[in-house]
Structures are given as structure tokens and as C-alpha cells.
Specification:
14 helices; globular
Length: 381
């Protein structure tokens, strides 16, 4: 029987890769719902191509498509769905993720901010409802694959508390990072970095917010927090290594000294397909297989935290507790939006995050207001 999917973020890069997987396996998947941000025409075209009746948009539109948070939540919880793919950027994915979980749907999650903002709550509700949270990011998919065995299960899919805990065997979980466009820039002055430069990623094609996060390496900081929750780890178990070739997507060092890694080409279709077919593996993918020749000369190095202050702030914040997590993601989201709009220079992104952490715990809305006030104080570049 085909697995029935709802895809939120259908017109973005993750949505496009998900639909590539669907098109490659028409016998395994059926799309029953699609949502996007504001691209009504693009959403309609996808609905016609895949025969989808249930649609939603985040923004008001003239096409008669239901819109707003309520419409997204209703679509995420669509009764005829089996699995909800959550690929809406930023904190807009939080409420629909909870709606899908409450409806009893497994969730394939690409929106890292959901777990960074409210990982404890989301994982608690997941366990109560007995559903699985399947990682779509290539790094977390790699950890997920390395952690599984016939006897142990990772926290994100463990529905029986008596099942042996995969994280109990972990010494280190190592997330790899491409280093983004500025890894080799000799003189990196964040005050002079332009939007076009920040969006010129050497390996991945992603939405603008995620691409800027990759340039500052804040994306890797948010992924550390996401890994804490997905796999029930603690900060002392987490590491980041820069790997410019983006072939080794993450590694797990076990307590017995074994080091397991997952390797693949830099194409999101592969981790997406694994999440959609889990616990099975499909017999083919819409991706060129990795050859042994491509693995020559793989490089690894520790990140220079003096060059990437956003990542440094995350490492400093993690031991302080979960109250720092929503500040890290929401302050960053406000700052990146302001940078993309030309309101602040790139060096101010870290400054907004740092001021948010210094101000201490607050509700989500207050964190956003504080960050916006900080942005407003900076002169326009």
C-alpha cells in the first residue's frame, strides 16, 4: 500500500527534492496535501501534476486557497495522511508540527527551528502519541542511520520505553559542516560580507535563510540542538568538524571505540528518501551513486570559532540549559531576515544573538520583540 504524504514547504528546495523522490517511486507514495508560503501559482501547478486536492498557503492569496496558521495546521493533520513532511522555514513550522503529531501522524522533519525552539515539548508529545519524528537533514539522517541496530532504537522513533536506548552506547556524535562560502577566505570581515556572497554556497542549493545560516555556521549550531533532542544526547557528546567535500554527512563514535559514518553525494533526495521509506530502504533513488573515486582526498578540520562567532555562541550557550535554545533560533531568525533585507550588516547577526542571550529567558514573543528592538538600534549599512 502506498504511503500517503502531506508536504508543507512544497515549493521550496526540500519540497522539490521530496517530490523528486515521490516521482521516482509512484508505487510507494501518494501526495494527498501540499502547502507553501505565498506561491499560489507554483502550488497549483504541483497540485495538478501530482493530483492533489488539499492545499494551503501561509500568506493570503487571490487564488482561493486556504491560508494562515490554521490552514497549515489543518493540512498537517489531514486525516487521510500517513506522514507529514515539514519543510516550512523557521518558526512557522512549529504549530503545524504539533498538529501533525496530535493527529497521530509520523513527521519527517526538515525545519530544525521546531526542535530548537521547543524540543522538549515536541519530543514529549511525540512519545505520548506514539509517533516517529524522522530527520530529513543530511547530517541528522546520517546520525539516525548510524545509531540504529537490531537491538537499539534512537529516541526519535522509540515508542516503547522498554526498548534499549541507542544513545547509551554513544561517546560522540560528530556533525560535519561544509564551511560555507567563507571557509577559505583569508581576510573574513563580516562587516563587509554582502548578501550575494552569503548566498553563494559552494555545495548546496537551499532557501535564503538556511543558506545565510550556512555561511555563518549558525545552521550547524542549530543542528547541534536538534541532535540533542532527536537522539536524547547531552552537550558533552556533540562535536562539529568541517568537511568541505560534503560526502561524509555525520559520524558516531561509540563507547567501544568504533566510528560509523554515512556517506553520500550532496543531494537532499537521498536522506529524504530514507525518511520516507524507513524502516525500509528503496531499491533505487533519483540520485547518482557515490563512487570510490569521489572519496579521494577527503578533508576534516575543527571549526575556527573566532571566525564563526554564531557557532561559538551556540557552544557557549548549550551548557547553560534549554532556555537558551529558543533565543538562539528566534534571535538569529530576526537578524538574518534583517540582513537579507539590507537593514543590518552580517556582523550584526551574532550581535543580535549575543544580546538576546544576555537578556535571559523569555516567552517566544518577547524574544522576537527584543531581537527586533536590537536590530532597530543598529545603523543601516
Amino acid at each position: 500500500m502506498r504511503r500517503r504524504l502531506v508536504i508543507l514547504g512544497a515549493t521550496g528546495s526540500i519540497g522539490a527534492s521530496t517530490l523528486r523522490v515521490v516521482a521516482a517511486h509512484p508505487d510507494r507514495f501518494e501526495v494527498v496535501g501540499l502547502a507553501a508560503g505565498r506561491d499560489a501559482a507554483g502550488l497549483r501547478a504541483l497540485a495538478e501534476r501530482f493530483g492533489v486536492r488539499h492545499l494551503a498557503l501561509a500568506q493570503p492569496n487571490d487564488a482561493g486557497i486556504p491560508h494562515g496558521e490554521r490552514a497549515l495546521c489543518d493540512l498537517a493533520a489531514l486525516p487521510e495522511a500517513d506522514l507529514t513532511v515539514m519543510a516550512i522555514a523557521g518558526m512557522a513550522g512549529y504549530a503545524p508540527t504539533l498538529a501533525a503529531i496530535e493527529a497521530g501522524h509520523d513527521v519527517a522533519l526538515a525545519t530544525k527551528e521546531v526542535l530548537v525552539m521547543a524540543g522538549e515539548e515536541v519530543m514529549r508529545r511525540r512519545a505520548e502519541r506514539g509517533v516517529r519524528l524522522l530527520p530529513l537533514d543530511s547530517e541528522h539522517s546520517a546520525l539516525f542511520q548510524a545509531l540504529q541496530s537490531g537491538a537499539y532504537q534512537p529516541a526519535c522513533v522509540r515508542t516503547d520505553p522498554a526498548t534499549p536506548r541507542a544513545e547509551a552506547r554513544v561517546a560522540e556524535a560528530i556533525l560535519t559542516a561544509s564551511g560555507g562560502p567563507f571557509l577559505r577566505r583569508r581576510e573574513l570581515d563580516w562587516r563587509r560580507v554582502t548578501v550575494a556572497e552569503a548566498l553563494d554556497h559552494p555545495r548546496w542549493r537551499m532557501g535564503p535563510k538556511v543558506t545565510v545560516d550556512s555561511a555563518t555556521m549558525m545552521n550547524k549550531g542549530l543542528e547541534l540542538i536538534e541532535a540533542l533532542h532527536l537522539f536524547a544526547l547531552h552537550p558533552g557528546q556533540l562535536r562539529v568538524w568541517v568537511h568541505p567535500q560534503s560526502i561524509v554527512h555525520s559520524l558516531v563514535r561509540f563507547r567501544d571505540g568504533a566510528l560509523l559514518a554515512q556517506l553520500g553525494v550532496a543531494d537532499m533526495a537521498l536522506p529524504i528518501q530514507y525518511a520516507l521509506t524507513w524502516p525500509d530502504r528503496a531499491d533505487h533513488a533519483p540520485v547518482e551513486p557515490l563512487s570510490l573515486a569521489q572519496m579521494r582526498g577527503l578533508e576534516f578540520e575543527e571549526p575556527d570559532l573566532s571566525r564563526f562567532p554564531c557557532l561559538r555562541l551556540v557552544f557557549e550557550a548549550l551548557p547553560r540549559g534549554a532556555w537558551t535554545h529558543p533565543i538562539l533560533t528566534l534571535a538569529n531568525e530576526v537578524a538574518v531576515r534583517a540582513f537579507l533585507a539590507g537593514r543590518i550588516s552580517a556582523d550584526r547577526i551574532a550581535a543580535v544573538i549575543e544580546e538576546g542571550l544576555a537578556a535571559g529567558p523569555a516567552p517566544f514573543e518577547a524574544i522576537v520583540r527584543r531581537a527586533e528592538a536590537t536590530v532597530a538600534r543598529f545603523p543601516t549599512p
